[in-house]
Amino acid sequence: MNSLRDEIRFLFSGQGMPYEKVCLMVAAVVCIVLGTMLSSNFSHDARVVVIDLDNSAYSHKLTSRIDASEYMKVTAVLNTPVDPSTLFYRDQAVAVIYFPRGLEKDRYTGAENHVGVFYDNTNTAQTSDIKIALNELIGLDNAAEQGDTGSTNDSLSGTIGLADRNLFNPSGSNYNVEVQGFLFFFGSMFFTFATIGMVPRLRLSHQLDRILLEGTPWDILVRLVPYGACLAVSFVFGMAILRLLGDMTFSGSLLTFLFVQVFYVLTVGTMSVLFGWTAANPGIASSRMILFIPGGFIFGGPTGPISFYPDWVVAASHLFPLTWEFHFVRDIIARGAGFADISKEFGAFLLYMAVVLILFCAKFFSARRALLKRQAQDELHRQKMQQLSLEESAAAGQAE
Question: Which residues have C-beta within 8 Å of that of residue 158, sequence separation ≥ 6?
Fold first, then answer.
């Protein structure tokens, strides 16, 4: 009982983590903030691209009905043949709807025809609502054609049907979504654990002051190279296991993927060092990983469809480096995009990386100025003490 009383006394003494307050704050943040950000459980205004080769009044009417649905939002209408898979790059669309030539003619002459639908199956949950909505829309249209405007007769079969195809992950394999997502999440997390305590370690070993005075920011960043190489190798090794033992698909170029990883590793490593800079020791620094790694895993796509989140959540999620990583993973690995196809996304990521590097350099030179100021104060104090010592020695000599 003495041990229990002693620990309770320490808990409320303020000498350690104020856990009695932290536990309540964590519960409030998780329930309020994440509850708001994850409040939607269906695809609201999911982006849809229409390839309208018929370009008729009937196809225009169908396009308007699709856009009026709460589940879908038509972001582009193309009137020329396009490879549907290219329209999914950079998460530009969740589905591509294809209206063939002669659709209006077949609709009113009673000939059979089909509306083609291509679904992005990189996350199997994001298309479920859209599939239901499109089937209902076509069913209502066929019912209206046969005089049952309210679509109360489910046995009616019209002349227009849906021909759908799941792209990129047709079998709905978890190896291409959840397991792959955990690979990049845990890999990035342990990479952060290995690097976030770098500056506190250098400070404790008295190497940081020398680097600040004689070196440049690169002298710290170059220390990330062996850790980054290990991370890249672990990604390839993990994907090889998923490919050999599972059914993971790798549709793109491995060289393109590795090229992007160079910049991703540098960005995550720089953020890791930056977040751990002010920690007293590496152990305290490790706890700060939670500030910038898990958010990308939660909102980057592996745990839930991006189309479920409000636009402001999707925009805010790009503050986390893993969100960018999952964009590249979906495009390069799942969709087979080349470097030119992801150039816009990669350019935006370079701007993000530039901001991180600027903040790191600002922190480095700020620490250098603080060190020089502290050294100047120490030197001034030393001179004053030396002067005082000389004065005391002179006074003692005169007294003798």
Answer: 138, 139, 141, 142, 143, 145, 146
299-341 per-position pLDDT tens digit: 888 888 888 888 888 899 999 999 999 999 999 999 999 999 9
Helix (H, G, I), strand (E, B) or coil at 85: helix
| CB burial readout 2-33, b (16+ within 10 A) else e | eeeeeeeeeeeeeeeeeeeeeeeeeeeeeeee
Helix then strand count (H, E) for the chain reads 17, 5
pTM equals 0.85
Task: List, in order, residues 6 or more apart from 6 with CB less than 8 Å away.
Answer: none
Structural tokens at position 312:
């402001």
Cβ contact 356:263 at 8 Å: no
Quickly tell me which residue has 């909102």 as its tokens: 299
For the record, the structure tokens of 13 come out as: 């003494």
**Could you say which of 3.40.1710.10, 3.20.110.10, 3.30.420.40, 3.40.50.150 is the CATH number of the domain covering 46-167?**
3.40.1710.10
286 in the Ramachandran plot: left (φ > 0), alpha (ψ -120 to 50) or beta? Answer: alpha
Give the three-state DSSP class for 258: helix
First to last CA, the chain: 65
Backbone angles phi, psi at 118, to 5 degrees: -110, 125
From CA 80, how far away is CA 55, in angstroms rounded? 10
CA distance 143 to 154: 9
Please answer whether residues 72 and 95 qualify as being in contact, where contact means their C-beta atoms are separated by less than 8 angstroms. yes
- The CA-atom distances, in angstroms, between 123 and each of 30, 304, 332 are 24, 8, 15
Indicate the range of 120-124, 147-151, 180-184, 265-269 predicted with least confidence.
Answer: 147-151
Domains in the chain: boundaries: 46-167, 174-377
Which residues share a beta bridge with 51?
78, 98
